[in-house]
Amino acid sequence: MPRPRSLTRNQLAAAALAVIDREGLAGLSMRAVAKELGASTMALYRYVQDREELEGLVVDRVLGAMDTEPPDPAAPWQERVEVLVRRMRDAVSAHPSVAPLTVTHRHRSPVGLRWAETVLAVLTEAGIDGERRVVALRGLLGYVIGAIQLEHLGPLSGRGTDVIAELPPSAFPYLSATARQAREVGPEAEFLGGLALLLRGLTA
Question: Does the pTM of the predicted model rise above 0.85?
């Protein structure tokens, strides 16, 4: 008789996510997850074929917290897209190191696919279709994932902004001045301001 399974794929995903949250994406390995679970590395291969499949489970777990239901149909389409983008941001920002995986595994995550379908429905209703719709979806996805990584890896409140602000104005007049102003911009204003610019471009 086959050995009974003592773990679940959900437990694997939770353990892998714990490793990523603690050590970053570079720290994820079958060995690290096995240690997290108190199991042997080979035991994990009874549940997943390889690290790629494990990454997919992690993405499913992170995006599983996201609401993909259509926003209020009475709201302007720009507001509905903003709601959907903010939902993605909220889900992924809880585990920012996972952000790159949401791109590479976007075609494997049922919740991610449903989110994209809902966004596309709103864009189509707004008259954005064909090649423009392709670019719009990619632009929105690229924006939210990129913004999450900037916010957590290079926040405006971080040391990098201070260093740039101290550059000699004679050599970097615009960059140093912009960095000094950046100190006053909070994460929410940064994210929503950039999104507003993107949506304004789609409106045009």
Answer: yes
